[in-house]
Amino acid sequence: MSATVQTATPPASPPAGPMRLGLRRFRRHRTGMVGLILVAVFIATALAAPLIAPASPIAASWDAIRMAPSLAHWMGTDEIGRDELSRVIWGARASLAAGVVSVVIAAAIGVPAGLAAGFAGGAIDAILSRLVDAMLAIPFLILAIALAAFLGPNLRNAMIAIGISTAPVFMRVARASTLDTMTRDFIEAARAIGNPPWRIALKHVVPNIAAPVLIQATLSIATAIIAEASLSFLGLGEQPPLPSWGSMLNAAQQFLTQAPWLAIFPGLGIFFAVLGFNLMGDGLRDVLDTHRRGQAGRGQAGGEAGRRPVEFPASPARPPLRRSPPAPRARPAPGAPDRPAPPAPRSRRRRTSPPPPRHRHPPPARTAPAPAPRRRNRS
Fold first, then answer.
1. Considering its fold, how many domains does the chain have in total?
2. pLDDT tens across 101-121, in order?
3. How far apart are CA 299 and CA 182, in angstroms?
């Protein structure tokens, strides 16, 4: 007897979810990955500042005032002998806190307002939209400076001022995404089966506006870092002796010729932090935004990698067409002219048919008038 061996087929792997597909697309996005690496280094530096800083950021040394970068001080020292590398590392913590907390405040104010305006419509939408237009009419940095000056000069008030100034942008993004989502068929289906409005908003609308809000949050962190540095430069952010990149630039403007490293290294910190968040935000936008997904990935020339182009099977090669050689011309007989005689001119024949009538309808026939009746003489 021969026994049949049955091999068990492995179970089919479940299809990849949208999160896994998004991560795969983001891994192929080169500039997005560069931004993610810069952001990861920035966050790791800010969180591990107490461990990696070589010295205290507020400890002064009067024997090492404005020393150039060396092995003892990799980024030199400032005007009172404080280690510049330690202050740059600790300044990253202040910038990260300002960026993240400000964006959280802005999203907490703007996203619910935009969701309510887009979902409810009517008078609520009109009132909130006019309020946002009035706030956007004021320049962002001017509004942040005014709020920070009103609340008081410290880092906490600066974060609140930046968050309030950024909230209108989140409100407009959430409102536009909500209006776009409300036109979908699944919203009509949810209403048809009797779902209450709060369930439709939380279960169907909020998940569909999460991607645009996340993209805007990533880009707004970079704006918040610049705003915090600007407020600290003006004396409205982190107060001395605590380190901040903006306050370090303010102190370095007096020694640009004698000690340029005091302004170079904080400026590079701001540059790479903002660049990282901008590149990562652009990558997330190309991956998560369905309207721009088709434009993502233009090869190495654009610096972005997107979806692979669809490859169609090549058509079978066809044999080349063979043309028959032209027929040889007949040679004229000896004594005959080389060129044929021209054809005889055609004779013009006279038209034998009668000419067409000039009128469309024939004229009516003329009839002789009837003779007048004779009169009889009565005699």
1. 1
2. 999 999 999 999 999 999 888
3. 35
